[in-house]
Structures are given as C-alpha cells and as structure tokens.
Amino acid sequence: ISETMSTNEENKLLLNGRRAIPPNYSNDEENEVPEMEAFGVIPRGFNPRDYLRVEEIYMFKDPHEINKQEHHTDKYYNPKLIVRRGQAFQIQIVFNRPYRPETDQFWLEFLMGRYPQQNKGTYIPILVGSVLKPDQWGAKIIHRENNSIRLSVMSSPTCIIGKFRVYVAVLTPFGILRTRRNSATDTYILFNPWCQLDAVYLDDEKEREEYVLNDVGVVFHGNVEDVKSRSWSYGQFEENVLDACLFLMDKAELELSGRGNPIKICRVASAVINSRDDDGVIAGSWNNVYDHGVAPSAWTGSVDILLEYYSSKQPVRYGQCWVFAGVFNTFLRCLGIPARLITNYSSAHDNNANLRLDFFLDDEGKVDTRLTKDSVWNYHCWNEAWMTRPDLPVGFGGWQVVDATPQETSDGMYRCGPSSVQAIKHGHVCFQFDAPFVYAEVNGDVFYTRMEKNGTQVVEHVDTTRIGQLIVTKEVGGDGMKDITEEYKFREGSDEERLALETAVMYGVKKESIQDTTYQPQTDVDMDFQAQKAVLGNDFKVTITFRNKSRNSYTATTYLSGNIVFYTGVTKREFKKHSFNAKLEPSSSNSFDTVIKSSEYMSDLLEQASFHFFVTARINETGKILAVQKAVVLEIPTLRIKTKGELVVGKETSVIVEFTNPLKQTLENVTLRLEGPRLLRTIKRQFGRVPTNSTLTWEVKFTPMRPGLQRLIASLNSDALRHVYGELNVQIQKP
Hints:
The protein is mostly beta strands. The chain is built from 12 helices and 40 strands. One of its GO terms (cellular component) is extracellular region. It is an enzyme of class 2 (transferase).
C-alpha cells in the first residue's frame, strides 16, 4: 500500500483529466530501462550469452578526437561526448563475437528525461541502414574489424537539444537485450550554426567563431559622447557551465519536446535569467545598496553567477543590465545559438510603449521630478540571437532582440523577445514578441512639457534625435566597436524613417501628433551644452552656448540643474543649481562657463560617476523655452595588470594587479576580483582600506594549463568607487 501511496501523491500533483503522463521538463530525471525486455514467457533453456552481446562502446569523446574536433566542441571542459545536431559523429561498438548482418539485429536508443516518447523526440531508436540522410536520424557501418564495428550516426537538424542517455539494443527471438545504464556514454546534442538545415545556421565562418566560439567579449557603457568599454568573460566552455545552462531550461519548465526550437528557448530564458516572478538566476538592484550580495559592477564574467545559481538554486545578488546580458550571452553561445551583446545609448524606458517620453517642467523651467515618470537610460544592454523565424512572414529571420533585464511584463512575466531587428527597423511591430516595446526603446521623442496652474499642459520643446542615438556591439575578430544603429533604424529625417514610423503607428505603437499640443518652437536661437572631459575627483567646467541667428537682441533667463543619476537616468539628487541672465546680441554666439567642484558632487556620487544636466532658458521677449539635457560620465581610473616570468603551460607564473587611489578620500571595503576564461577561475581578495594617493599591489600565482591567446580581467569595488576595471591579453606558450 505504501508503494501506491507514494506514486499517487506524485500523480495527484501532476496528472489531471487531460494528461496521460506528467509534464516532462527535467533533462536530469531518468526512467528505468530494462536490460531484458521479454516478448512473453521466456523458455527455460534461454541463455542471453548465446546471442550477440555488447562488450564496449567507444564514443571518441576526447577533445583531440574526431567528434569534438569536427563538431567544434573541443573547448568544452566536459569529459562526455558533445556533438551538434544535423551532423554525423562516430562511435565504435565491440561485441562478444564478429557481427553477422544476415542474422544479427541491433539498434541504438537515445533517451531524454523521465518519460521518453518517440512522438515527443525524447525516445529516438536509430536503425542501422546503408545510407545516411541529412535531414533525419540514422546510422551506417563505416568500418568492421574482428568483433568491432564503427558507426557513423546522423542526428536530425531539428532534434531537441540537451543530454541524452545512450543504449544499444540487440534483438533475440525471446526479447530485447540492452546495454546497462552507463553515464560515460551520455551524449550532449547542441544547436549547429554550421549546418544549413539548422534554424540557427550562420553562413560566415568568422562570425561563427565570434558569436558561438568566442568566450570573452566587450561591454560598451558610458554614454553617447563618451563611450567606455570593459571586458566580460562569457566562459561558456568552463566546467559545469553546460549543465547549468540545461538546468535553466528545467527551471523555466520548458517541455523537453520544445527544446529543439530556438524561439521558445530564447523566450523562456529571457524570463528565467532575471529573478522577478520565477526565482530566476539574477536579482536586479538599481539603488546603489548591495547588502548580502555582490555589487553589479564587481562581476567580471558569467561563470561565477551561473555556477552559484546551479548549486544554490537561489537568485544570485546583484545584477544590472550588462550582467543580465552577459549571462544571457553565455547561455546562448553555450547551447550553440549565435549571440551578441548590444548597447543602446540613450535608451527610452517608457511605461506604455508609446513613443513619447514626458519631462515635466515647473514654472521656473526646472524639471519636476515628482511628475516625471519616464526615464532615459544612459545606455541599456540587451542581446541579439541569430535564428530563422518560421512563425513570421519571410524576411524577418536573422538577428532577434532578446532582453533579460526586467523592465516590463510580457504575457504576464518579466521577459522580452525574441523580436526581429528587421521588423523593428521597418516598423512592422505587429510580429511577436514585444516589438512595440523595443521600437519605443530606440525611437522615442522627448517632450518637455510645462504644467500651467490650471492643469493644462504646454509643450515647450521636443527633442526627436536623442533616443537610440547610437546602437553598438563588439566587432567580429577584434575588441573595437561596431556601429549597428542602421540595422535598427533608417537615417533620422529620411523618407524611409517617416514610413517606418507610420507603419509602427498603424500597428498600434501610440504616437501623439505635435499639432494637438500647439507647440511652436523658438527657431532663431540655438542653445548648446558642452562639458569638459574630467577625471573622477577633479573639478570640471561646463559651457552653455547660445547662437542668436536673428536680427533681434534677446535676453534669456537661464537655469542650469546638475543631478547625480543612476545610469538608468533616475535622479538621486540635484547637486548644482545655477541661474543667470544671458544677453544675446543679434547674429552672434555667446558662451557662459560654470565650474563644477568635486566637493559639490563627491559625497553623493553613485557608482557609474554619472551626471545629468538640464538646461532650460526662457527667451523673455517671446516667452519661448529652449531646453537641452546631457549625460556626463567622469573618467574612472583603471587597474594595471602585468605578468611576471614566462607564460608556459604547466609552469607556475604570477600576475600583478596594481591600483592607485586618485580620490581625495580613503577607499573603504576594497575588494579585487581576477579571472581569465580557460586560464584562471575567479579569485577574490579583500583589502581593508586604501588611503588617498597610495598604491595597492596584489600578486597572484597560477599555473596555465592550456596554450593560446587568453585574457585576464580584473575589477575593483569599494564603497566610494566602483566600475574600476583592467584587462590584459596573454599568450601562453606550449611547453
């Protein structure tokens, strides 16, 4: 009775009147597979030893052997066989006697999960035939010698991906004899960008090397005027990372039968990589308080995050957009889906997929932070994944936006994408998933609106060029920046851009026309704002320039507001207020300088050293308002990394990380991290305090185990200073 109780308990949870078997979304669980599957009553004299029997199975699974070489999986730090779908691989079977094709019959079985079923793709019997077809499972004998045969096995280019269990079955008159469960023969099957029939096929070898096989990348941050970059270790080949990535699909409860479809995988992954609503991988935090966790700026790569989540099953604290995007990129490349990390500068974070961001001004022309709900992120990182879109009309395959940073819900969960870049460019935002939201992130207009005392709104200024000014990714084969803005939008002001916008509006993106809002700008005066490049901790100068193109003299009441902001454009506090009257002579330019002192900003500065300046000027003679806003990011000092001694496989060497504190204050709670994919697992070291102008030196001894060009990445984190990075490319010689 107790036995039936326990299975009933289990079934009560999973079975209902609609399902014959419980949901099947764990790649890890297994069923019992009988070694002898009898056809009926077995006669007394039956001895399985009289029949063909399997003694050994060789998978050719070492990195230097044929399978991992031909399938581009030799970099995975994993002892099992890893192959890509739609491409043949070899295995060798040793029997107890020579194989006789006339009388002996055997086949292979690939199984996944607890309830393998042939129609779900989780039970795959493979018969041995004379020819391999490129679009389906099959096997043929390519070599026979003594008691052994060598098989070439072809997997289907649409099969599900994950870890399969492998059995060899032999037919006897009384039943099927199977090999015993042997985890050493488990085989991972991944997506195959090298196979033309695979949905993720990418036809350029250099792009495949970058977007699938490169385990280091570059994250662009800062802002449009001052693009900054840092390295990120994706580490998709490191030990246990592949298993951690498969676990994410189990966690997201993606049915095993859906795991051959990159669209489904991207969609569930974009939800499970953030912890909102499903206890996913990373907990986001944007408030500069990171208790009981790691500050987002301190991470140097994805491996620590994925492995911590895989072992603890609890969200890892904390991430911001580039951390979500870095981990998502690792997940996609690890499974074989080509992927790249994108940065959109001046990204509209808008609450309702309309194309208007409202900044409300009070009577004096200052931004009213109580009323202003929309924000412009200095930058926002997401990912693109490469795949066909058979669910959409022809022409919308290729790069798809996927975003794991929790911003808005989509079908009830915090996720975004996949959304076709091509559809966004042309305004065809009716095509799934989440295209209107992404379209607004790169195409919004900023409205400066004044609230009259009686509650009417007067639009004082519209900025149509600020949002999505620059969209970039790392170049193929180098660390430079590639501008891909034109893949998302037509040139500002072109006919095509107008048409794409009208299409987007037709498909439901909300846009209010300016005519409704009786907006007439002051056209004969331009106002510009520039900030001097400055290093964190120093004073710097900002300049407001007016160009009066008219023949009239004007006076402008000008207000400068300097705010310390999160990189998401949300203000923490106003640290600088400055008003003055500017006289504007006819047909001339006038510049006005203001000095920003370090003492004004250092006490409240946030980790990305970001300021946001609003300048509003009222032309007194006409009552019209000019408005401009600009993000300014200070230069943050870098870490210096150098190596000491020879860099040879198997020989101990050391790396030295140095940092000089440039601030006028002592740094408290300093932590250093250092890692290098395939070179060095992350090492952390606490340093209590670093006084002003003093230099910290940290020496780490390590022994490189693999030859080739590799990268060391370091970060420094402290209470007053974050986002301090350093990196060094090192060439490890063969012994």
